[in-house]
Design a protein that fits this description.
Blueprint (H helix, E strand, L loop, with lengths): L1 H13 L9 H15 L10 E6 L5 E8 L2 E8 L9 H13 L4 E5 L3 E6 L10 E6 H5 L3 H6 L5 H5 L2 H9 L2 H14 L3 H11 L6 H11 L115 H10 L3 H6 L27
Parallel strand pairs: 3-4
Antiparallel strand pairs: 1-2, 2-3, 4-5, 5-6
Helix pairs in contact: 1-2, 8-10
């Protein structure tokens, strides 16, 4: 904030005004007038600031702050190292301002400003509205920081200072105190006056007395504050229009497009989206066929008629794994061999020669070897 930055600079200059250099002339030139300038008072403009304004009894006041053709505040100054607790000094300035019809008067030593309302019908010390210490405001004192702007030209021009004084110091606190006392111990005349104002529907005195205790003890909020607003429910996020080019897999063929957003003046017209067929599902990859857990033996060959000269070429047995001499056949395989007449010895000796004459009583030929004798 620019005003507080200026206040810090002025407070820094005040640290250097020690001893004789802290006289009234240097205080006015180096502290008071820079402060007035920071508060919006142009010290070079006669419509803003007049020095040594004459008053009655051949006296004068150091500064007259003006708005238009009227004086709105008088300021009486002392050196920065002087004390402001001199009652005669303060009373002379405040009473002189009241005699001139000026509502506000301040006494200052360049760092401390004490502001009085001159028309209050109370002793001088009770006319004090507020005090500002620039050295405390420079280091962040909340009360002093808040009161510095009350001395600005804007505050005096729009009535903010007068309203603040009414609400915080003078009229409202006094009325509130009196009403609280009346509510705590209301007189019969006070209760009758309230009932008279109520009109036709009178309230019994005991109930009226209780109501006063409830109504008049409510704290009045300080000026400029507002009651906290009720929390607002969070608003749902705006619905985003669905892109018609993206169709879920489970959607039907005909889709209803989302409502279009309001068109901007500078935007090109958007074409109406058409229903889009769902994309075809990708073909599933062929599943691997598992091999049987055990080899399947071929069906038995049909026995040939004896005497037939048909020549059968031996076929390799690929469906049945080769047996090793050391491996005994399974019971199922042995039974098949006994039924078909296949013996281990015939397989080891090999097939009969093709050139031998067919013997009708010989065992029948078979691709894997001759049949053994079988008892039928």
């Amino acid at each position: 904030m620019a005003l507080l930055d200026d206040v810090r600079k002025i407070a820094g200059v005040a640290e250097r005004l020690k001893g004789p250099v802290g006289n009234e002339a240097n205080t006015k030139a180096l502290l008071i007038e820079p402060t007035l300038s920071a508060l919006g008072w142009d010290t070079t403009n006669l419509d803003h600031v007049l020095r040594d304004w004459p008053m009655h009894e051949n006296s004068s006041i150091d500064y007259a702050l003006r708005i238009g053709d009227a004086n709105v505040m008088f300021i009486e100054a002392r050196g920065v190292n002087e004390n402001l607790d001199d009652h005669s000094f303060t009373a002379r300035a405040v009473d002189g301002a009241n005699g001139e019809g000026v509502l506000w008067c301040a006494v200052t030593n360049g760092l401390i400003y004490r502001v009085y309302r001159t028309d209050e019908l109370v002793p001088t010390d009770q006319k004090l509205a507020f005090e500002v210490d620039l050295s405390r405001a420079a280091v962040g004192s909340p009360a002093d920081t808040a009161n510095v702007p009350l001395l600005s030209r804007e505050s005096l021009g729009d009535g903010s200072l007068a309203l603040w004084g009414e609400q915080k110091v003078f009229t409202d606190p006094r009325v509130r105190e009196v009403l609280a006392a009346l509510a705590a111990n209301p007189s019969a005349a006070f209760l009758d006056a309230i009932n008279e104002a109520i009109g036709e529907h009178k309230v019994p005195r005991d109930r009226l007395r209780s109501s006063l205790g409830r109504v008049l003890v409510i704290e009045t909020p300080p000026p400029g504050t507002r009651a906290p607003a009720a929390p607002r429910a969070p608003e749902p996020p705006p619905a985003r229009p669905r892109d018609p080019s993206i169709t879920p897999e489970s959607s039907v063929t005909t889709t209803v497009p989302a409502a279009p957003a309001p068109a901007r003046p500078d935007a090109a017209p958007t074409p109406t989206p058409r229903a889009v067929e769902p994309p075809p599902r990708p073909a599933e990859p062929p599943r691997a066929v598992e091999a049987p857990s055990r080899p399947v033996e071929p069906p038995p060959a049909t026995p040939e008629t004896p005497g037939a000269a048909t020549e059968v070429a031996p076929q390799p047995d690929t469906a049945r794994p080769a047996e090793t001499p050391d491996t005994a056949p399974s019971p199922e395989t042995a039974a098949k061999r006994r039924f078909l007449g296949v013996s281990r010895g015939s397989r080891e000796s090999g097939a009969q020669s093709d050139s031998a004459p067919a013997d009708p009583y010989a065992p029948l030929a078979r691709p894997d070897g001759p049949f053994d004798e079988v008892d039928f």
